[in-house]
Amino acid sequence: MQAVQEKVRPSPAKTAGAAIEVSHLTKAFYDSQDDRVTVAVSDVSFEVERGEFVCIVGPSGCGKTTVLRILAGLEDELSGSVKLHSSTPPAMVFQEASVLPWLTVSQNIAFPLSLKGVPRAQQETRVREMLTLTGLTDFANALPHQLSGGMKQRVSVARALVDDRDILLMDEPFGALDEQTRLVLQQELLRIWETTGKTVVFITHSVDEALTLADRVLVMSPRPGRLVADMRVPFERPRDVVEMRRDKRFWDMTYEVWRLLASPAEA
Amino acid sequence: MSTATTILTEDELRRLKAPARREKLFRFASYFSPLLLLLIWELSSQFNLIDRRFFPAPSAIAETAWRMIVSLELFEHMGATLRRVGIGYMMGAIPGITLGLILGLSQPARRILGPIFSALYPVPKIAILPLILLIFGVGDASKFVVIAIGVFFLMFYNTMGGVLQTPQIYMDVAKNAGASRFQTFTRIAFPAALPSIFTGLKLAAGSSYIIIAAAEFLGARSGVGFFIWASWQTFAVSRMFVGIVVISVMGYLTILALEALERHFVAWAKN
Lengths: 267, 271
Prior knowledge:
- The structure holds 2 protein chains of 2 kinds.
- By secondary structure, chain A is of the alpha/beta class.
- Helix content of chain A is 33%, strand content 24%.
- Chain A folds into 2 domains: 18-90 and 167-262, Rossmann fold, CATH 3.40.50.300; 99-164, no CATH class.
- Chain A has 7 helices and 9 strands; from the N terminus they run βββαββαααβαβαββα.
- In chain A, helix 5 links the parallel strand 6 (167-171) and strand 7.
- Chain A is globular, with a radius of gyration of 19 Å.
- In chain A, 42% of the residues are buried.
- Mean pLDDT of chain A is 87; it is low at 1-14.
- Chain B has 12 helices and no strands.
- Chain B folds into 2 domains: 2-46; 72-269, MetI-like fold (Orthogonal Bundle), CATH 1.10.3720.
- Chain B is an all-alpha fold.
- At the A-B interface, helix 2 of A face helix 9 and helix 10 of B.
């Protein structure tokens, strides 16, 4: 039963050492019906520092979700290696509504704790903290079908944070939301990340979202997915997701990433 | 709400609400349409428009029913049938749900054991009743077994179908949250399959009463099925109708009870 209580956190500003090391990762899928091999990810290598926020951007079908699923242990690599330097397994926030419809908001958030058999009182304290953190306190006893898409993703985020794991993997968590809701949740995610100092790998197809959130942006090419760029995002923290759009560098970088995404993948 | 009523005129509100009001009227009328049939039956029987030997008037049937209620004879038969259905139902449902969950979750189990169930499923349950009587005798055991077999297959297929329809993402969530295989079974597969399980439970309840009626025709000295059969042999047509109505009502109430449970446990699946 691992740390469910809040630990004293090192500041997100770099405590040295890599949290994630991926080297020469290749993944392919085989469809035996059509006897067809699809290479999803080809020879991808990158590192993520402890406490760093990294976004992987790429067009749909470029294998970025596959990379994340391999990091989460939901999929096996074909070759190459993935090393996670962490005492806890990574927590994942999924793409679609992954909230369990038969559990209330509180029960959904408590799910990882209840699987581990954490005492009821301790669960309740921790869930209450998460409800406050994600602004869900008023919806504690609601069932998922009563919630909006944005609310459901808040629940997913709260569930991923509840047992305080070191690494957070996020698979286009805000992809299905409208723009206003997405902006609000991005700002909240930044606030939460700044207070918890977790290592985050965030998948998105939105260049805008990647630049808003990340310390570093990894750009992937269309299938077979390869890394084509590794860019440092210069904006200072804490960030204001609206204000930073006045910065000229934001638009220069947007242009730069778009140029990379638009260039045809070399054979 | 209050702003809407001030913006809209009286006439607009009336037109807006008209379909809902019509709907309510139809629903009210729908309660009475079966009674209308009963009334036609009563009148046709009273005026000899139909053969009273085969279709005694509902009032005459009700009179017979009342005598049987007062003498407690009816409850004896109902009790016997209910006990057989209840026990047989449990004997079929519990293994059916368990195996449905296991085969739904495990592809190897489904590959290997699936064909066995597919091969046995099409056998009509009534057709094997003589065989079951031969093995388990004419006592209650044979009734339990034949109901259990019927219930088992419905529960097995509905549960397995429910598990197979579970979105993969719930399994991923469980794995990422650190669920063991057993926890995935109890905390994900079972609740996810619950709507299908309830569909199965309702179908199984219906078929349990069909099977018990047939089983009691042949080898029983009590029960509503026996009672219907015995009435036929003595040409007591009113009593026969009482039996038919009673077993129908029993089935209906069982399904109502299951629906109430479903509303309680699967409230999340509405919408």
